[in-house]
Design goal:
Mean pLDDT: 96
Number of helices: 10
Helix content: 25-40%
InterPro entries: Creatin/AminoP/Spt16_N (IPR029149), Creatinase/aminopeptidase-like (IPR036005), Creatinase_N (IPR000587), Pept_M24 (IPR000994), Peptidase_M24B (IPR050659)
Pfam families: Creatinase_N, Peptidase_M24
Distance between the termini: 45 Å
Order of helices and strands: HEHEEHEHEHEHHHEEEEHHEEEEEEEE
Keywords: Aminopeptidase, Hydrolase, Protease
Number of domains: 2
Structural class: alpha+beta
Number of strands: 18
Organism: Deinococcus radiotolerans
Oligomer: single chain
Largest sheet: 6 strands, mixed
GO molecular function: aminopeptidase activity
Radius of gyration: 23 Å
CATH superfamily of the largest domain: Creatinase/methionine aminopeptidase superfamily
CATH topology of the largest domain: Creatine Amidinohydrolase
Strand content: 15-25%
């Protein structure tokens, strides 16, 4: 990806993805697959859209032929994003727009005109969202639907050079957003105001730096985002914001990420306002050691479960297993969480090109939570941390005067 290229996946790469999926259909004895998940549709076509109650579906044949089911209101949007693909199959509106036909019956009629064969799908019908109700695809076709979710998502596990470049750029802006936020945190500062203000400033910086190379892929959210929660609330892994000011002695658990070409990064840090207590320093060091163990363990050829086992052994050696609330990490890319997971029951073999978060946490009830998270790329000979924000305690202290 050159310095002047638009920061997005090319049409040629989308075509390659569809070609690989078509080959997997052939290898599995499947004639076609229906793809309902919005992120999977975007992964295979480059069509990014606001997912609502109106069904959108991609039908891909074993020969690589594409049919897209869309509400009429998305047809022009689709043509703008995907001029290389055939015109869509449309319906007037959900649940029918006066046609007397549910949108999925339009899809089923199309499938019935195709040559007979086994049909797969990532879901047996459109996902229930925004009030949607509709029949199962299997019921409409009168035949079983093969679970084809893994056919697509296994392709998504290993990132291409273009995907890695986008995530690397997203990490750069996640790091920047975190720095803007950290510099703005002072005693008395409101969590919400600082978090949103820093996200907006970092987004301004990103847009100024990248110009028209930056291509938004969503209607909502900002390209650069950061936030934090504080105090004993951090003992909850997914604690909510408080409408309160930061106080000396507070522990902060932060999050920051960029979104570039639809791809996300992940960065989290544990911070302290003022001089840390001995208890804080002890738990911080334990958390950092656990993350170090995860970074050292992530290697091609190992399994996700083996990485988690190494991290758990590190924590168990400190007698702190009772403070663990979640697994060590997860893959991500177009979504904040993707398959596979660094978990004792996930035996997926790790391969070069996979990208994971490494984020073991320790949660001390009544005191605080302790968690760093970094974006890490698996390479041929090890692992590379793509989020480069400081991890050491002196760099993560908020001065009180």
């Amino acid at each position: 990806m050159t310095a002047t290229a638009r920061l997005e996946i090319s049409r040629a790469e989308h075509a390659q993805r569809r070609g690989r999926l078509a080959q997997r259909l052939q290898d599995s004895g499947l004639s076609r697959i229906c793809v309902f998940g919005p992120v999977r549709v975007a992964y295979l076509t480059g069509f990014h859209f606001a997912a609502t109650e109106r069904p959108v579906a991609l039908v891909l044949s074993d020969a690589g032929d594409v049919t897209m089911l869309l509400p009429e209101l998305e047809a022009e949007h689709y043509a703008h994003q995907c001029p290389d693909l055939p015109g869509p199959l449309t319906y007037p509106e959900y649940p029918g727009g006066g046609s007397g036909r549910h949108p999925l019956t339009v899809l089923a009629d199309h499938l019935r005109t195709a040559p007979p064969g086994r049909v797969a799908a990532d879901h047996d019908g459109y996902e229930n969202r925004w009030g949607y109700r509709g029949p199962a695809l299997s019921a409409l076709l009168g035949q079983p639907i093969v679970d084809g979710l893994a056919l697509i998502d296994d392709l998504r596990m290993i990132k291409s050079p273009a995907e890695i470049a986008l995530i690397r750029e997203a990490c750069r802006w996640g790091d920047h957003a975190h720095r803007v936020m950290q510099d703005a945190i002072t005693p008395g500062a409101n969590e919400l105001m600082v978090s949103h203000g820093a996200s907006l400033q970092a987004t301004r910086d990103l847009l100024a730096a990248l110009g028209d190379r930056y291509v938004p892929k969503a209607r909502e959210g900002l390209p650069a985002n950061t936030m934090f929660i504080s105090g004993a609330n951090t003992a909850h892994p997914h604690g909510l914001h408080r409408n309160a000011g930061v106080q000396p002695g507070d522990v902060l658990v932060t999050g920051a990420y960029g979104v570039v070409g639809g791809y996300e990064s992940e960065l989290e840090r544990t911070m302290h306002v003022g001089d840390p207590t001995p208890d804080f320093e002890r738990y911080f060091a334990a958390m950092l050691g656990a993350q170090d163990a995860g970074l050292a363990a992530l290697r091609a050829g190992r399994t996700c479960a083996e990485v988690e086992a190494d991290v758990r052994a590190q924590i168990e050696g400190l007698g702190l297993t009772h403070l663990v609330r979640h697994h060590t990490g997860h893959a991500f890319g177009l979504e904040g969480h993707e398959h596979p997971f660094l978990d004792l029951d996930d035996h997926t073999v790790i391969e070069p090109g996979m990208i994971f978060s490494i984020e073991p946490g320790l949660y001390v009830p009544g005191l605080a939570g302790f968690r760093h998270s970094d974006t890490v790329l698996v390479t041929e000979d090890g692992a590379e941390r793509l989020s480069l924000y400081p991890r050491d305690l002196p760099s993560l202290l908020i001065p009180v005067s």
